């Protein structure tokens, strides 16, 4: 009888992590940024039906990169959790932190289970507060860990390079047009440093807008409104970008 092939637990976990990272890297990147009046989600997505960004609850948004069927299952589970908790207790008891903990437990259990493959997804859960200081952004990698982010975050295939670009240029108090323009510039940069143009038709954009009078702060930005914001961002950010470009 042959001896079973032995793989150390450390190597098994490393192999599962590498498998998940490669799957996520095949997807298009997306970014989430704070601006003066809320949080904006921006990603390249040619599909009009399969969304990367969704509303979870009144003030909470969801963004995901990776395999659509896997993060869609997680999104649906998050909506059910939020609805049940809000109905059982109070709407204010539904928070991004609580939702992130639920997702972390699910992803962590799947990642450590030898019976199934790890999920090839990376999530962002964001909640808009009454003030910019109350905004919350949590990034959840494939292994179920939770990273508390501030200002900006990128997930997906080229996330490391995009995050570096955003860290150098993002600032507090940006307008929506400025934040949107910065996000598109970051997504337009290829791994070799060159830039490409992403037309408005290929962008998916949504915001959590704290100034909306409704309880539900999530809304999508499409069509003419998106084109106007991109144009305003291009006009308003030209002078501001001159200094960083000259420093490089």
TrEMBL record:
Keyword Repeat: no
Pathway: Protein degradation; proteasomal Pup-dependent pathway
Record GO terms (molecular function): hydrolase activity
Compartment(s) of residence: Cytoplasm
Keywords: Cytoplasm, Hydrolase, Proteasome
Reported regulation of activity: The formation of the proteasomal ATPase ARC-20S proteasome complex, likely via the docking of the C-termini of ARC into the intersubunit pockets in the alpha-rings, may trigger opening of the gate for substrate entry. Interconversion between the open-gate and close-gate conformations leads to a dynamic regulation of the 20S proteasome proteolysis activity.
Principal subcellular localization: cytoplasm
Single GO cellular component term: proteasome complex
Superkingdom, natural source: Bacteria
Family: Belongs to the peptidase T1A family.
Stored HAMAP family: Proteasome_A_B
Function per UniProt: Component of the proteasome core, a large protease complex with broad specificity involved in protein degradation.
Assembly notes: The 20S proteasome core is composed of 14 alpha and 14 beta subunits that assemble into four stacked heptameric rings, resulting in a barrel-shaped structure. The two inner rings, each composed of seven catalytic beta subunits, are sandwiched by two outer rings, each composed of seven alpha subunits. The catalytic chamber with the active sites is on the inside of the barrel. Has a gated structure, the ends of the cylinder being occluded by the N-termini of the alpha-subunits. Is capped by the proteasome-associated ATPase, ARC.
Entry protein name: Proteasome subunit alpha
Lineage: Bacteria, Bacillati, Actinomycetota, Actinomycetes, Kitasatosporales
């Amino acid at each position: 009888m042959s001896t079973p092939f032995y793989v150390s637990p450390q190597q098994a976990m490393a192999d599962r992590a590498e498998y998940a990272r490669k799957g996520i890297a095949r997807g298009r990147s997306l970014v989430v940024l704070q601006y003066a009046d809320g949080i904006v989600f921006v990603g390249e997505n040619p599909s009009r039906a399969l969304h990367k960004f969704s509303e979870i609850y009144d003030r909470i948004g969801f963004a995901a990169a990776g395999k659509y069927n896997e993060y869609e299952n997680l999104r649906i589970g998050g909506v059910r959790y939020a609805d049940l908790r809000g109905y059982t207790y109070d709407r204010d008891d539904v928070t991004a932190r609580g939702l992130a903990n639920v997702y972390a437990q699910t992803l962590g259990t799947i990642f450590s289970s030898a019976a199934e493959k790890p999920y090839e997804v990376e999530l962002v859960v964001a909640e808009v507060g009454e003030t910019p200081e109350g905004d919350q952004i949590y990034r959840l990698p494939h292994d179920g860990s939770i990273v508390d982010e501030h200002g900006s975050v990128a997930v997906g295939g080229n996330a490391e390079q995009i995050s570096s670009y955003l860290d150098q240029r993002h600032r507090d108090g940006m307008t929506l047009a400025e934040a949107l323009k910065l996000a598109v510039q970051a997504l337009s940069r290829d791994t070799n440093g060159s830039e490409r143009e992403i037309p408005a038709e290929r962008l998916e954009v949504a915001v959590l807008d704290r100034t909306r009078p409704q309880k539900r702060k999530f809304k999508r930005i499409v069509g003419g409104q998106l084109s106007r914001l991109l144009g305003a961002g291009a006009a308003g950010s030209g002078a501001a970008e001159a200094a960083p470009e000259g420093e490089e």
